[in-house]
C-alpha cells in the first residue's frame, strides 16, 4: 500500500512539473503513473550499474556526476514512454532536481502516521 501511495505521489509530482516546465510534457494522468513506475524501475535497476561504471568520474566531480546520471534516467524514461517528452538534457536535469525536491516534500506531508 505504501508503494502505491509513493508511486501516485510521484505521478502527481510529474504532472505538476510538466505543467510548470516548458521543456517537459506529459499527455495525461495515466502517462504520469507510467512515468512514475518506469522511473522507479530505472532508478532501481539502471542507476546502480551506472554509478559503478562511472565511479571515477563521480569521485572526481565530488558526486555531481550523479545529477547527470539522474538526467540520463529521465531521458531513458522519455525514450521508453510515448506520452512523456523531455526536450533535452538540461530540461531533464532540471526536471530530475525538481522531481526529487517535490517528492521529498510530498512524501514528508503524507508520511505522517
UniProtKB/TrEMBL annotation:
Q: Which InterPro entries match?
A: Phage_holin_4_2
Q: Which residues form the signal peptide?
A: none
Transmembrane portions of the chain: 28-46, 53-77, 89-110
Keyword set for this entry?
Membrane, Transmembrane, Transmembrane helix
Q: What is this protein called?
A: Phage holin family protein
- Per the UniProt entry, what species is this protein from, by scientific name? Constantimarinum furrinae
Lineage of producing organism: Bacteria, Pseudomonadati, Bacteroidota, Flavobacteriia, Flavobacteriales
Amino acid at each position: 500500500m505504501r508503494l502505491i501511495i509513493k508511486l501516485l505521489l510521484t505521478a502527481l509530482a510529474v504532472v505538476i512539473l510538466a505543467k510548470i516546465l516548458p521543456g517537459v510534457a506529459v499527455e495525461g494522468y495515466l502517462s504520469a503513473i507510467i512515468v512514475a513506475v518506469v522511473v522507479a524501475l530505472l532508478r532501481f535497476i539502471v542507476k546502480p550499474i551506472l554509478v559503478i561504471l562511472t565511479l571515477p568520474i563521480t569521485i572526481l566531480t565530488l558526486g555531481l556526476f550523479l545529477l547527470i546520471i539522474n538526467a540520463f534516467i529521465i531521458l531513458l524514461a522519455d525514450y521508453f514512454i510515448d506520452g512523456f517528452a523531455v526536450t533535452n538534457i538540461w530540461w531533464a536535469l532540471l526536471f530530475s532536481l525538481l522531481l526529487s525536491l517535490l517528492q521529498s516534500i510530498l512524501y514528508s506531508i503524507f508520511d505522517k502516521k
